[in-house]
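Changelog entry

Holo records now carry the ligand SMILES as an explicit input line rather than a separate metadata file. Below, a converted record for zinc ion, shown in the new format.
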Amino acid sequence: MDKGQILAKFSSDPNRYYKVELFEKEGFKRKSCSKCGRYFWVLNDGQNLCPDHIENSYSFIGDPPTRKRFDYTQAWKEVESFFVDNGHKSVSRYPVVCRWRDDLYFTIASIVDFQRVMGSKVVFEFPANPLVVPQTCLRFKDIENVGVTGRHFSSFCMIGQHSIPNSQGYWKDKCVELDFRLLTDKFGINKEEIVFVEDVWAGGGSFGSSLEYFVRGLELGNAVFTEFQGDLENYSVLDQKIIDMGAGLERFAWITMGTPTAYDCCFGPITKHMIEKIGIDSDSDIISKYFRAIAKTLSESSDISIARKSAALAVGIDNVKMDKIISPLEGIYLIADHLRTLIFAISDGALPSNVGGGYNLRMLLRRTLATMDRFGWNFDLDDLIDLHVDYLKSTYRELEETRKDVKTIVRIEKDRYKESRVRMTNISNMLKSQNKKLSVDDLIRLYESDGYNA
Ligand SMILES: [Zn+2]
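Structure line, unchanged by the conversion:
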């Protein structure tokens, strides 16, 4: 099954798959991007480019399009009260360690909370209908982008809006109307700023059309209308259709705050604490320009080091400024991100190890410590964990109970890292003295046993 083929099929019948009542009521026009051909819906008749190709991409940095400012914690309170006021039950997050699914180690999306695999079939168990959930999700695919792009995280909060259409729940018309009103009424975003892009989502043996919504080039959410099972040639309508809307809470906060990166408004006081401690010469004008530029260069080249260099070049930041301002900031963002992920994972019972998901956690901590070593920083990890937990606990009360355990595990891992660094140095010196080079097998052995990441 090819996603492009399904998208082409769905887009060839937009009235059936994409046109919702809201578009009719508000006067949204359907357009095809003059650069890439993608179909999208927008109020401004003059807009001919999709969100990936618009000129004012990421112009919310330094100039947010909202009347209100909400940091991460406040943004969730706003989202939650909106959906509760509109008949949804607010459900607590599920663990980030996905014990109810054999095929996943970590929870990667809010819909996973409610999926139960029965043989070859996935069935849904909803504790309420409709519902909203602030689901912490862990994803390690773009780990090298974390801290660097301004928007990638190793864990993030997916706002999950889920509904089964029946006497209580709803289908796509109401879903898109709610999402639109959340952006306009609650967040104060001008409706002319909102663009819906036609897309398709397939996974877990089911698929459906979806509408991704963007503001100034930033994807805020994706409303998936899960409707079919099977493949393109041979599919049937699901017994139970599902609304699967997932939105990034970090991005909701970011677009209202207009900070240079999403990290600046989502980690509470922790980044400021670190910046003050090491005393970076932070020129907010340069920083804002740089992170607006990297959003663009990253869409042109997915190679992060190329995107980084092009962004610096585009805004005239020389190597000295990169080393003095941007690189340390990237380090701070990485540390803040990785520690937050470790807090959630360890609180939910995962441990750093050499296998499976535990290995991801070990890597996170070692990347954190290696970053501190590289810059010669001496942050007290207990302090940083406290700052995170104090900030997060108004949304996630349960983190208070595991605060001490997290500190203990992190301390043990830190000691192991130090020991392994000593051991690695000894092995390396010994091999050098014997005039030997490390073979591939040696490296693999070291990598697996010690998390070698020099
Ligand atoms: Zn386009």
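Spot-checked after migration. The mean pLDDT is 92. The first helix runs from residue 3 to 11.
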